[in-house]
Amino acid sequence: MADAYLRIENLVKAFSGNVVVKGVDLGFDKGEFVSLLGPSGCGKTTILRMIAGFERPTSGKITVDGRDITHLAPSQRNIGMVFQAYALFPNMNVANNIAFGLKVKGVPAEERNARVTEMLRLIGLTGYEKRFPYELSGGQQQRVALARALAPRPRLLLLDEPLSALDAKIRVSLRGEIRAIQRDLGITTVFVTHDQEEALSISDRIVVMNAGSVEQFGQPFEIYNRPTSKFVATFVGTLNTLTAKIIDSAAGTVSLGGQTITVPALPKGASNGSEVGLTLRPETVRLGPGSGSDLALQGTVASVDFLGSVIRLKLDLGGNSISLDTFNDRRTPPPALGETITVSIAPGDVLILGE
Amino acid sequence: MTRSPTAIMASTFRLTLGLAVALLVVDALFRLLTSNLDAIPGQLSALLWDIAYVGIAAVALSILSPLLTAAWQALQPTAQSLWAAPLPIRRGFSRIPWPWVVFLIGAAYFIIPLAATVDFSLKIRRGTYSLDAYTSVFSDPRFQATFTYSLLVGLATIVVGILIVVPAAYIVRLRLPGLRPFIEFVTLLPLIIPAIVLVFGYIRLFNTSSVLPLTGSAIGTNLLLILAYVALALPYMYRAVDTGLRTIDVGTLTEAATILGANQFTILARVIFPNIIVAVLSGAFLSLAIVIGEFTIASLLNRPAFGPYMQNIGANRAYEPAALSIISFVFTWLAMGMIQLLARFAPKTSARTD
Amino acid sequence: MSNNDANTASLMARVPGPVQPGPGRFSPLGFIAGIRPTELLAVVPFILFAVLFLIAPTFYVVVSAFLDRAGNFTLANIAGLFSEQIRASFWISIRVSATSAILGAILGLLIALAILRGRLPSWIRSTVMTFSGVASNFAGIPLAFAFLATVGRLGLITVLLKFLGLDIYRGGFNLLSFWGLTLTYLYFQIPLMILIIAPAIDGLKKEWSEAASTLGASTWQFWRYVGLPVLWPNLLGTLSLLFANAFGAVATAYALTGMSINMVTIQLYAQIRGDALGDPGLGAALALGMIVITAFANVIYLVVRARAERWLK
């Protein structure tokens, strides 16, 4: 953290008394791909716009490579940005769009043209120099926007929900492409999204934000498997919550469906006999009775969603309801609606979350 | 980043040449537009001299530019790095709040004539302010007669305009999109062909010896005036109605009404029209504002309208014209204010297709 | 953008655009085949009106410019246009119209940019838009009166400046002159420009200027390379509309100057009234000349727009 490439220190932004970013501290390493993830209005876009220089922080500091950029004009920051709505200049063709940043910096024409050719090869649109933005598909426009942002060799790349205006298929393929180009160039990248799947798949690290504050900052694996708050756990991935009764808070034993299990950690100061919410991911619930210390539960199938490679079942456990994911197996058909089946849970997969 | 002297010269030359061309275009336009026909040859030779001056200046500046650049950089040792000291404070030229300056100058240009006119209209009595000019205008029977006449003609214009425009715009949108280019062309004509040319044509075309001798009788001439005003207001009326039709789903509304057994006329009068009434009325008030003080057509057709009356007062009185001017301004403002007010009542719940 | 602005502005803004063929069945006269009587009833009044009161008069004027009193073909009327007086009258009309259109377009653009993009309070914006709606229709006789009361020989500003020791009329200003007329015309040209260009400026996406600034462009560079080129077709269209608007104006100039300035519209007015020579052929030729000039302005616009608009859908 100390030698972070992009540092955000105690950043606060208030719009006419309404505080939307509440003292955020973050440090990103050089070459890292970081996502800012959160619901709309959580302050992620405001942070990005402060890094770009479009918004002035109410207080706090932003440094890049040790240099304070908090009060620089956007045009002096040497930062590349890609917008949700493409924002290509409609009066310029692809080549001129990409060359724009170099042109305003006074780079000679030969050098500009060479760079345009290089960038077009990078985004796989060689031969599209003379096209105008309206002649391109959304995905192509966004790739040109990426090339335009990268052409002047920026210190940082900011991506403001660049995929959300695209079709689902193109969204997935383009995000892989963006990640590959980013790795290739080793450029430090901040990516804003509200789509948790996108953030999980693309990022080195993820900042989960809620109501102007950072909830958790870590690698996708950590965020998903070891969420530190209820908000993170529910916002990232699907979550089951089962109500259990605490038997012995010191030993960590609870009673669920008449069976006693030992869970990793109970909240401090929970009294014996009180109720507690156990949470677990759908894919940790397995069909069948399981083995050893696994908790076996019986329930009736309330719904079956066939999603292709995965089948998502909803079970009624008498008071509790649980959803579980199982892989499709072409040899065994999925359980039928109303059928009574047994599922098992490993106590180690159970998460107990504070609010 | 240091550049070679020749590169600096070349880029300076390109820049100054661009500036020079822009300057010369402005210069040429200015010289052309401010001179009478016979003065133009003289202005052209002056322009040639300007071209020579500017060209010499551009070349001289380019040759000197490496020196100037070096001097500039010597004076500002830190200016090269983008990452130099932060620049939160705007300096010099860019510290002036230009939007406010532009707005205030504009506001002055538009408010001063109004203020001066109000002032003038109140000065009919020596040494004191009074409303006598307004009293004089309002009590003039000719004012009452001509204003009423113009108001009636304006209302008739609106009614005729609606009857002509609404059904056509509706059918064109619904069934005859092929006619659209023709209709749009027609609605643009009054903007391209000056009104005085049209009225010239009317007077010749509908004179007493023609097939349709409208100018032969007072009623006929009144009718001609109304139709001329419909032509004048046509672009605005048509745009207003077409915009109104665009915001409702004409096709679906018509189909729904047809299934319920309504005929074409009922649909237009009871389904479509109520939905676009606000748009139609905006067009109507705009037409009224255009028509009420119209001078050229009314005067050439010899009608006792408000515009010719104002002109007559202007030629014969000193203070009453100012009062009339303010009255017209207030009337225009009222008509525009009605459009604003109507816009608040525009149907917000109607189906929108785009 | 508030609803009421959209109303006036959009109807104005669409005015100078080229004619777009509508979608659907469009074949020469093909649409007549399936037409129903009620539909015919709806469009016939419009077409009849257009033919009788727009097309026929124009056609009549054009034709009679080439006819002598006996109805025979002649070029004498056209030749009459090249008399010194009429040439001068066309020239002064073109000068006033072009100058007031160019200045009106530039100043209107600046004011529109200031109120829409200059971070001024929002009440200023709505007030300016409403005022523009009023002022753009405040032309003709009352406008002439207002300027006479302001900078006429006894106008408030003239008197005030004289009191301060500055005699503008001795300094060469005259309301009944080229600059006086231009100053007056600007009172409706600037608001018209604001009304038409405002929706176009609103159409400039905020992201374009943001993208330009992250790419290192200054505000000036943004306008030079993106903002103005995008607005260019609209600016040209408005310019030609402003030109035609001023070129056809009669009442303002007539009430302001009477016959003392030799505008072409006033010439034609005098011809029709019979105040002058009363030569109908020459009148028709004058009218034809006016049509040619306003049509020319619009054709230039259409050509340039077609070239500039490749990148627009």
How would you sum up this structure, described in words?
- The complex is a heterotrimer of chains A (355), B (354) and C (313).
- In chain A, strands 6-7-8-3-9-10 form a six-stranded mixed β-sheet, sandwiched between helices. In chain A, strands 15-19-16-17-18 form a five-stranded antiparallel β-sheet, with no helix packed on it. Chain A has a four-stranded antiparallel β-sheet with strand order 2-1-4-5, with helices on one face.
- In chain A, 24% of the residues lie in helices and 34% in strands.
- Chain A has two domains: 6-235, P-loop containing nucleotide triphosphate hydrolases (Rossmann fold, 3-Layer(aba) Sandwich); 241-349, Nucleic acid-binding proteins (OB fold (Dihydrolipoamide Acetyltransferase, E2P)), CATH 2.40.50.140.
- Chain A has eight helices and 19 strands.
- In chain A, strand 7 (156-160), helix 5 and strand 8 form a beta-alpha-beta unit.
- In chain A, helix 3 crosses helix 4 (138-150).
- Chain A is α+β, with helices and mostly antiparallel strands and 355 residues long.
- Chain A has helices at residues 44-52, 94-104, 109-123, 138-150, 168-185, 196-202, 220-225, 230-235, and strands at residues 6-15, 18-28, 33-37, 59-64, 67-68, 79-82, 156-160, 188-193, 205-210, 213-218, 240-248, 253-256, 259-262, 275-280, 285-287, 295-306, 310-316, 321-327, 340-345.
- Chain B has 354 residues and is mainly alpha-helical.
- Chain B has two domains: 1-67; 135-344, MetI-like (MetI-like fold), CATH 1.10.3720.10.
- Helix content of chain B is 75%, strand content 0%.
- Chain B has helices at 5-33, 40-75, 98-121, 132-139, 141-174, 180-192, 195-205, 218-247, 250-259, 264-292, 296-300, 306-316, 320-344.
- In chain B, helix 5 crosses helix 8 and helix 8 packs across helix 10.
- The radius of gyration of chain B is 30 Å and the shape is extended.
- Chain C has a single domain, classed as MetI-like (MetI-like fold).
- Chain C is built from 14 helices and no strands.
- In chain C, helix 6 crosses helix 9 and helix 13 (264-273) runs antiparallel to helix 14 (280-308).
- The longest helix of chain C has 34 residues, at 84-117.
- The radius of gyration of chain C is 23 Å and the shape is globular.
- Chains in contact: A-B, A-C, B-C.
- Chains A and B meet through strand 5 of A and loops of B.
